[in-house]
Each structure stands twice: as structure tokens, then as C-alpha cells.
Amino acid sequence: MFKQKKKYSVFVTRAIPEAGLQLLRKHANVRVWNQTSPIPGKELYREAARADGLFTLLTEKIDKKFLRANKHLKIVANYAVGFDNIDVPAATALGIPVTNTPGVLNEAVAEHALTLMCAISRRIVEADRYVRSGKYHSWQSMLFLGADFFGKNLGIVGLGRIGISLARRAAQGLGMKILYTDPRPNREFERHYDAEFVKLPELLRRSDFVSLHVPLLPSTRHLISAKQFAMMKPTAYLINTSRGPVVDEKALVRALKKRLIAGAAIDVFEKEPRLAPGLTKLDNIILTPHIASATVTARDNMSLVAAQSILDVFSGHRPKSLVDPAVWRKFLAARPVS
Ligand code: GLV
Ligand code: GLV
């Protein structure tokens, strides 16, 4: 009789693009939490208990307690480049590989940051509301004056793949001067884009636009707070497509109210999806619901990368995007591949 190879089980914590699901279904038994809101903790524990691999969204809190209760998991594949929702050191200690989806969403996120920059500085959302509400009666010489980009300074905080993608567009497309800050200077990048490496306070003092591209770490929590807003130009704009807690949201509301800066456009929130009081009352901010990577192509590719990571682990291959590569030896030692 035909002997079927063991089919592993995957649990997917929310509806995801068909591309990734199809790939998973070819090789594994797949269950999906097919709802628009996050899976309740109890259900997640129940489903994880009978799964070999977990496909998670950034809304799922994969903490030490969860990982200890689910030591049998062969992988947690996060459908995001960020992984602050997962206790990675705890997963490594237990020999559970954690993967993310870098590489396939850089361009989409950089494009969203650029879109936000354009929209806030040229007051697109305000202007649209003005026209819709029937207020447009006559052309005026000083109606909705905005800020321009050409020759202005863009300060990039965190020079990873996304920061570099934004720099390319801003330097080569918009004629902006690039300042950047990062733990290490990148001389090749500087030569290529005529960029300047500076410390954060200098970047804040000199930039006309500040765009955040750091991961959320203990060292980047509230990186931008009251003290930093006070350093910025009153004509400057803040763009955040990284993680909400990188900005002290209450301090942001105060800075915008007092016009310490000209405006902000943010895609992420400190206590997502809750918003700091007063945020939605401000006219100098644009708010989008964590959609920076939300293009059809990026999301398809993210689902494929996460699905492939799961299948790689099931077949004993090291997945490409291990968040902590040190886990792999532990994984193999704990679960010898036959
Ligand atoms: C989205 O925020 C991501 O980390 O991919
Ligand atoms: C504006 O519409 C102009 O023609 O300058």
C-alpha cells in the first residue's frame, strides 16, 4: 500500500492571502482562524496544542508562558518583519525557531512612509475634506500652503532595509538631502546617496522631515518624547511607520497642539488599536491603521515567505529568515531530523 509521509499541522491565526495558504495546503494540514478580529488567548492555546507549526500575526502575543505551554511547536512564523510580539529569547531557550518576513516588504513600507510625507506636507487629507464639505468657492493665493521637499533635509532614524529604500526615493526622486542615525555608520550608503551620519539630537535639530525605521526594543521605546520634540524645527514633520511605542504618543499630542512641530503622519500607535486621547482632534496629523506593508504584492510575498519557513522547518531545512539563528543548533539537537 502507498505509505503517505507524515503530514504536519499548521495553525494560521487569521485570514491571510491565498498565496501562502495554497503553498501550506500542498504539504500540510492547515487550520485557519477565519475572523477579522484577533483570536482570543484561550482559543490560541487550544489550537496551538494540536499544531506542529504556528503562522502568527503581529497581534498575537507569543510570550514565555505561551511558549513553555507549547514546547512541541517546531516553528512560530511571524507574518511581519517586526517580531516584538514574540519573546524570541524564550523561544530560543526552548529550541523553537522564530521567523519573520524581511526583504519582501521594504519597498511597500518605504512607499507608505513617502506617501505619508507627501500627504501631510501638502495637506492632502485636510484639502480633500475642505472640498467635500462644499467650502471651495474660489481659488486663493494662500489656500493650503504646504511644505516642499526639494533641497530639504530628511532625517532617517534607523538605517535598515526600509530606511535605505526611503532614502533612495527621497534622494534620487525628490532631491532631498539625507541625514541618518543608526548604531553604526554605513559609509557605502553615504557615498551612494551623499548622506550624512549624525547623532539623533543633531538629526532632530536639522531635519525638515523625520522618518522612523527602527525595530521596537527596550532602547527604542519612547525614543521620541517631549525632549526630542523640543529639539525639532517648528516647521518639521514626523513620520512613523515603525512601531507605535517608539513615539511617546501623549507627548506627540502635546507637541502638535502647541505647534512645536508642524505635523505628523503615523501608521502605528502606542497601544494599538487604541489611540491617545486628543489624537483624532488634531488637524495637523494623518492617521493610517498599520497598513504600511499593505500592498497586494507585499502581502502575497509575506504570506509565501512565512509559509515557506514553516515547510522548510518541517522538512528539516534551516529557514532563511530565522530571527535568532542561534536557535537552529538547539532545534536540531532537540528534534533530530530522521
Ligand atoms: C508590520 O508592521 C511588520 O512588522 O511587518
Ligand atoms: C495655478 O494653478 C497656476 O496656474 O499657477
Automatic annotation (TrEMBL):
Chain ranges of the D-isomer specific 2-hydroxyacid dehydrogenase catalytic domain: 10-323
Q: Does the keyword NAD apply?
A: yes
What range(s) does the D-isomer specific 2-hydroxyacid dehydrogenase NAD-binding domain occupy?
Answer: 114-292
GO-annotated cellular components: cytosol
Mind listing the GO molecular function terms for this protein?
Answer: glyoxylate reductase (NADPH) activity; hydroxypyruvate reductase [NAD(P)H] activity; NAD binding
State if Oxidoreductase is listed as a keyword. Answer: yes
Keyword list (alphabetical) reads: NAD, Oxidoreductase
The Swiss-Prot or TrEMBL record describes its family as follows: Belongs to the D-isomer specific 2-hydroxyacid dehydrogenase family.
Q: What is this protein called?
A: D-glycerate dehydrogenase
Q: Which organism is it from?
A: Candidatus Kerfeldbacteria bacterium RIFCSPHIGHO2_12_FULL_48_17
